[in-house]
Amino acid sequence: MLPQRFLREPSGSRGAIRAAGEYEEGAWRIQLTRSLEAPNPLDSKTLSDGEVYQAAFAVHTNASGARWHLVSHPQTLGLGIEDADIVAQRVDGDLSEAEVAWTELQVYYPGQTTWQWLHREEHPGKEAVESRTIGIRDIHLSLEEIADFAVELEQERATSH
Prior knowledge:
Elements (H helix, E strand, L loop, with lengths): L16 E8 L2 E8 L17 E4 L2 E3 L8 E3 L3 E5 L6 E3 L26 H4 L7 H6 L4 H4 L3 H18 L1
Parallel strand pairs: 6-7
Antiparallel strand pairs: 1-2, 3-6, 4-5
């Protein structure tokens, strides 16, 4: 996560991840790249062949750093692991010339969910969040369901204030 907008080219761990994308055939195609070696092991992970990592993505619209963004469900990212949600691949040489396998990833508007809301008595999943016994995919089985829930919750909050 980048906590702010940058006015100069990032370096170190903040510069390890690069993104390039374009809107094509009704969808965004975004290619993320990063070095396998962590520039600073205290704030990022070195990625190794044969390992699986947890990852989630946020897409910010209209250059907004906070609201009006879309998120993915948590995904597994495997470097050379074929049964991961996202199969990352090592590329040696010029990345722009590499054949890459695309992964389709749906994103949705998450509403204004906060850590505090997840731990309030009104949150129906409070106990599951606190006990960490189940994850978001176990409760909200589809992206449409959670997106609808987020919008309903925001409408409810707006009319109650």
